[in-house]
Structure prediction request, 191 residues.
Amino acid sequence: MNTSSASFAETHLVSENANKMIRYVVLAVLGTLVLTISAKTQVVQLPVPITLQTLAIFAIAAAFGRKLAVATVLLYLAEGLVGLPVFAGPVAGPTYMAGGTAGYLVGFVVAAYIIGGAADKGWSKNPFKMAGAIFVADVAIFALGFAWLATIIGPEKAFFGGVVPFVVADLIKIALASSLVAALWQFFRKA
Prediction:
């Protein structure tokens, strides 16, 4: 395998042997656990709570690469769809998933795809390249979240309730996630 263009997970966490699929499953389940904890770590605000979910999505995708990151986010959404309390609120299920946060949830999949693809190209080793990819992914999350929320509460309320309160925090999350994964690469390179 060419490790210069593989994700951190492909390079350091998943071997080429028969246990590869088991390791993928374990990483995906652990990723959904991180996403659940990040969803529960929140500042309550309406119509969309401020959580650490985007930070978790950014870091997971940057570390896991496209396939595993998208699979992890889809597994997380499936857990919520069947009613497991994995989201920011105390409830889940199809009705919750069609509510005000639906666009953001779809945006998580798109973000995992974008960031994971950049990680597969080796961008997670460079915090500046990865920050650029994460920024693009974050814009996609905002665009999808805003578009859906605007159909429910109107564009002005959606913008001031579902975009503006998150911008500064997301810029910090972008810096944290891109720096964290690049630091992991450095740590394992020296170890």
